[in-house]
Specification:
This protein is 12% helix and 53% strand. About 8% of the residues have low confidence.
């Protein structure tokens, strides 16, 4: 039946390679982005950004899989996955997160419903550098970790 929630799960909206959309896109079901969106993408369902896809602006979805480029304010209520070759940059909120080897996540991140802090890239970079400088260096991959024996 038209408009029922069951039918939304089967719907697929494709933004094809070479297509450029400026403005707000609202959809239900699954959205595959292989073109470019400059604006907002608001989806009740899943968004997949393919290797040739790019979104510059706000993205809100239940689940988000990124294999292309996404820049802006991102909210994946259930799950965000950045696959090899994918890049997510900006303010990111997620329920759960998976970044595969070769995927890039750069910006501010918040798990759950908390508000992401408003930081510009120039404000965030020194904080990232300071945190990296304070972090202990990991042992070399071929090192053996030794645990001291418990005192008797």
């Amino acid at each position: 039946m038209f408009g029922s929630k069951a039918s939304h799960a089967q719907e697929v909206t494709v933004i094809g390679r070479g297509a450029v959309i400026e403005g707000t896109v609202r959809a239900q079901g699954r959205v595959q982005v292989d073109g470019k969106i400059d604006g907002s993408l608001l989806v009740e369902g899943t968004v997949s950004v393919g290797p040739s896809g790019a979104v510059h602006g706000e993205v809100v979805a239940e689940e988000l899989v990124v294999g292309g480029r996404l820049e802006g304010k991102v909210s994946a209520r259930a799950h965000l996955q950045v696959i090899a070759g994918g890049t997510v940059q900006g303010q990111v909120r997620y329920g759960s997160l998976q970044v595969e080897r070769g995927g890039v996540l750069h910006g501010t991140t918040v798990q759950g419903d908390a508000q992401a802090p408003e930081l510009s890239a120039s404000e965030a970079e020194p904080m990232v550098a300071q945190a990296a400088a304070r972090a202990p260096a990991p042992p070399p991959l071929n090192a053996q970790l030794r645990v001291p024996a418990a005192a008797s």
